[in-house]
Amino acid sequence: MKRWTQRLLVLVCWWSTCSMAQPAAATTFRVVTEDAPPFTYWHDGELAGPVLPFVDKLMQAAGLPYSHHVYPWARSLALAQHAPNVLIYALARTPEREASFHWIGELVDMRIYLYGMAGRNTPPVDSLAQVRQLRIGVINKDVRLDWFKANGFSELSPTSVGGLDLSENSEVNMLKLRRGMVDAVPVSRIAMQTYCRQSKLDCGQFRQLYPLPMTMSLYLAASKKTSYQYVNTLRYHYRKLVQDGSHHQAFSRLNDG
């Protein structure tokens, strides 16, 4: 019995040593976003945009394998709120979201304007009170929707003159504007220019109606369930890409303050 006990101990020790010697399986991150120019968009059937090469540089430097996913914004946000090892962009950093994510680094600041159609008889807009008379297209779960609701705007109803009309992504939102289903959409100048270029549209058919009193600081962020080891590694290599000019090269033309 003593001999069998000794053999068992040897086997246990051998198994433990071998197990410790095996490298841990690499964690594959999910990088999630939406189809939203100018950050990410489809061009000739390929995913394009300035964030993709920047994220690729970041993840390679950090030694972290990843897969890229384009979902409706509500789904990307839900994944980043509840699943481990998820990166999300371009996420507006707000006081309400501050404790819900690990903030890796800022991408750009963007000023938001209301845009309508140039040839349409949209009434002049000189104040937020007049904005309330418009049908405004917004993306579900987007920070712009939160901003409108915080300022007393409501969703459209059969009896309302103006209000918020929700879409799943920016492409649908812009189609609603072009087809007259909404009067205005809140976007940045560079986002509108990118949309026109990618859609092969004359940007002269759109006109700026009103500058909204909001600027979005848009970030790359990690889900709260991501370990601090990975978060710190990503933050370190993000800073290195800022220092070597990679960040400026990727995003300087997008700053729209």
Automatic annotation (TrEMBL):
Gene3D superfamilies hit by this protein: Periplasmic binding protein-like II (3.40.190.10)
Organism encoding this protein: Vogesella aquatica
SUPFAM superfamilies hit by this protein: Periplasmic binding protein-like II
Name listed for the protein in its UniProt record: Transporter substrate-binding domain-containing protein
Keyword line: Signal
Signal peptide extent: 1-21
Keyword hit for Signal: yes
